[in-house]
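Internal tracking record. Fields below are filled automatically when a chain is submitted to the structure queue. Please do not edit lines marked as system-generated. If the sequence contains nonstandard residues, flag them in the REMARKS field before resubmitting.
Queue: standard
Priority: normal
Entity type: single polypeptide chain
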Amino acid sequence: MVFPRSAVPKILLHWLLTCYRAARRVRSYGFLHKINPSNLYQDPNPLYASVTKCSLEGRGAQTLLCDIQGSLLGSKSPFPYFMLVAFEGGGLLRALLLLLCYPVVRALGQNGEASLKIMTFFTFFGLRKKDMELVARTVLPKFYLETLHFQAYELLASNGRKVVITSLPRVMVDSFLKEYLCVNKVVGAELQVVKDCYFTGLISGSYLSNKQKALKDLFGEAKADVGLVSFSNPNDHLFIPYCKEVYVVAKCSCGVSSTMPREKYPKPLIFHDGRLASFPTPSSVLSLYLFLPIGLILAFIRITSGLILPYKFQYAVVAITGMRYRVDGLRRPSVPGANGGKGALYVCTHRTLLDPVMLNAALQRSVPAVTYSLSWTSEIIAPMRTVKLTRDRERDAGIMRGLLEVGDLAVCPEGTTCREPYLLRFSPLFAELADVIEPVAMDVAVGTFYGTTASGHKWLDPVVFMMNPMPGYRVKFLGRVAEEMTRAGGRSAAEVANLIQRQLADALGFECTGLTRKDKYLMLAGNAGVVGGERKQ
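SYSTEM-GENERATED OUTPUT FOLLOWS
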């Protein structure tokens, strides 16, 4: 008997339809009879009012009880936060192992006790305490703030005493809740530690019993005045008997946004660290790992073209590889010595270590840049001369004065990079030396990786930036500063520095601050930027 070839497509089509119908049936009924919270999340239980209908008046003496997951944070799944710890604290391999266990986590229910134990083990097994503390202080707050539920936070802030009992490991949320949300008491899963240095990945007790015990110890027969619950997190149901009032945190269908606006942040987010620029959902992390080989190739092509090709051909190469580059306000011709002997000083905002490189590409000529300590990688890929400063005021003034005598010079007076839409305080040294000042506003756009770090491997910064699929750089020349606004016009160096800082901030839509390089490193790296006697940039 000969099997007809025409039947093969029909069999394959029938098999695919059968699998699709089975998958839809499994999705409808769920694994292990798990309740599908999607409908409840969109249309909360009518027994409890939505948090958007809660009055905020007269709650200064009341106590609020909630969980951070689902109630305060808009993300229904804790997986992205575990991924942030695994990636930023443990590295690529640990993050890959956590990603591989996600199908099991999804099947068991992402907020279930078994899933939380699995994610905790793969995230924390062998992780150093100091790495976790660094991630909790410098990485997680950015993503917590971006997913913070606006109406839930308003209710939280209106109450005098705030208690958060969470299923997440306490070390992941304690720093953020106390520093940013002023929470009085945080109770979470306690992780076991070996030699007071490494996590074992195991918790003391169970999530459910720990929560119940904490509720009884804190309240006993008494009750909290207000409870925040989310039906996307079934563990929140434990709070209901311990609260006088209960409000449900749900997506609002009446056109009111639940996203926390940046201007409403409880504390301005100016400094943060880490490489991931986007919220690491399972699909985005999978895409990241698939893209890594391509990203390395793109970085190699972009960096190599900047080293060996003439400036006029570099634009075509970066455009072909997906990089966006825009130059505004450049006055042509721009040639050295056009300002009457002494060189012009290009004062740039500092977004990445590539700022002087992008300035040279815009001018299409080589302009030296003064820097503090640079890694060997940054020095190799720099297509122009880089001159190291010493942070000794007199010596640095002499170095810059000598460079300006022979030509133009580029400087970033912030002294370090800043990712967010803020400008750090400008050092006034440049204003004491230059007669001709050209402010240059620079900004970047990244979608996958940040090309700056304070506590990581800084030698990778230029490479990581160039690995982005479609990075963007904008260079905007603001024109020569009027003579009456400089030292020649009777202004002090500090006044000139502040005026130029404000001019650049207005051009970019940024906010000026009085924070310095030292402030950044004290927060992100726990030091003043000095490692082993050498100054870090």
